[in-house]
Amino acid sequence: MSSCFVGGFALENVVHSTAARTCKAQMISQFCPKSARTFGHRSSYTQRSVRRRSATTMSSQNGNYDYDLFVIGAGSGGVRASRIAATHGAKVAVAEESKYGGTCVNVGCVPKKLFVYGSHYPEYIEEAKAFGWDMSVQNLDWPRLVENKNKEISRLNGIYGNILGRAGVEIIDGTATLKDEHTVAVGDKTYSAETILVATGGWPKVPDFPGREHVITSNEVFFLPDVPKRFLIVGGGYIAVEFANVFHGYGSEVTQLYRGDLFLRGFDGDVRKSLRDQMIARGIDVKFNTDVEKIEKEEDGTLKVTLRDGGILEVDQVMYATGRAPKSRGIGLEDVGVELGASKC
What we know:
With 345 residues, this protein is of the alpha/beta class. Helix content is 33%, strand content 22%. It has two domains: 4-44 and 52-203 and 326-336, FAD/NAD(P)-binding domain; 206-322, 3-Layer(bba) Sandwich (FAD/NAD(P)-binding domain). α1 packs antiparallel against α2, α1 (17-29) packs across α6 and α6 (109-119) runs parallel beside α9. The longest helix has 25 residues, at 142-166. Belongs to the class-I pyridine nucleotide-disulfide oxidoreductase family.
């Protein structure tokens, strides 16, 4: 029986609201210390002390492997598994090819929440008039927002690294590939482990069509140099809906395209209809029952989008939010007898 386990794809979506609130407080504190003192959220928890057994003894009992557990991927699932196993006395290593924290911390729920918070301020300023405040929206400094977001994410990356280090987990930077059911290669080095956990998470999917090289996904949207004046978002899930509203708040002329009758399939029907009506009332152009046929890039950088119903859109940026797939390709799973499905990145 193979000791290689594929796990953590669902764990990639673990979200802690307290952490997101703290991130907002950190962003505010950079420019408005007085507000941060009242906004900041402090939480405390008691961690049970665990009597740790000797990691060296455990490894020797398990066949003289380098580690009891080797984790590929330091995202939400990988960090949690590594830390808990090490706390119980296992000798653990985790390999990560990018930044610690995975999708949620780096290009998911945390930066998305920061963008959401910022996109609401024009509405707050408009509402303030009814309460006697005369304010106006000045120029948006988008690069400042992105820079401060990057600083906050870097802070969280450091926290994740410290959490692993304090638990006694060895962190190995680099891309890990499976050589056999007990061996992992990272660069020119190999490591053995009794158990290998694959926690590589997911990756955005973009369907094949002419011009797909011109689109971005949720991986790239957090690093745009400017706010697109005309922004097309393709997809009908909550990621597409969220970003349509976020960039509308930042001033983009947003069009959301969905191939079905109504977005957010699986959610409450009344909520879906109400949200559709509110988005249209706010000025978001929502198009249903159509899809992209092809995308052509003009000489001035404009993206000409031809729709399957014959329509033509001219936009400055196209984002696809059409689902995610397990990030399981190219790490050697097939070589150790793990059968992969068709949906993989």
